[in-house]
Fold this protein.
Amino acid sequence: MSPKVRIEKFLDNASRSRLMVYACVLGLIGLALMTWSLFDQGWIPVMAAMSVGQGIGTLSFALFLVIVIIDLRKAEFRPSIPSQPMKPLKSDDD
Amino acid sequence: MHVSPLSWIALTCAVVAAAIMIYYLIYRPPLNNRVKALMMLAVGVLPIMTAMIGNLEGLQATEHQAFCGSCHTMDMHIADANDPDSLSLAAIHSRTIKFGDKSCYVCHKDYGMFGYAMTKLGGMGHVYMFLSEYAWYDMEEALPKIHIARPFKNDNCMQCHSTTGRIWNGVADHNGLLEDLRTGTTSCASAGCHGYAHPFSKPDEETPSDAEAHTALPAPSPEGT
């Protein structure tokens, strides 16, 4: 199975609520690491915040974007204003 | 512990984001447009603000002694720099307001065009060295092995001591070695000149003489240096 097909299959079958739960858990871990460095400015918290913390936070946001992509794939796009019926063109003879 | 107003903004963003995420985890509301907009705030906008402010605060934190001294191998360097009785170059400079709490950074940073980035890259090298080797040593083992990665540049001294002032040039040794000092051939912080910045860490300890220390303590006017 090619990667493209695999991704499409994942997007078709993935549970949005489960993805959101993962995004929230990762987001909470990332936020905890990022806020730790605001209070303790030793090298471990500062470097953890600017590398691991932000990496986990980015992963959390990426999962949210996957949910948005899943929704967009299932969305039906239609114009919001119905188009006006075409008026018959008058001929030059009139 | 110092918490700046920006940190409070970051903390507020983090708390609001965490509250929304915990609410979602507990109540699991259906993911309609309204909930998604809220979650966009919780996992996107607010954490990004926290991260941006965190970066700003984190980078500023790396300029303080507390950051440099958070590795145990720097304990003696920090203690000496903050010792009011010490006559080392590090201590003399740390007592001035220009250096103060940022004395490690002000002396050791790269003043070139890409200085900030180069200093941070150098710092990553220190982290690597610490994690791969020095973290496992106690102070007595580490002290003889710690050394500066590259010879200390006179350019850093010349950020304040411009070498053009009348008082500075009035010193015979300065005048005689002017070109060598400007090109870095002779180091200001070497045995025979002003001594090492952290003399306790050198086997052949070199400290300023009493006479030199007395002239160094009352800082001369910038025009004279």
User: Anything to note?
Assistant: The interface with chain B takes residues 16-17, 20-21, 23-25, 27-28, 30-31, 34-35, 37-44, 46-47, 49-50, 53-54, 57, 60-61, 63-64, 67-68, 71 of chain A (CB under 8 Å). The first helix of chain A runs from residue 3 to 13. The mean pLDDT of chain A is 88.
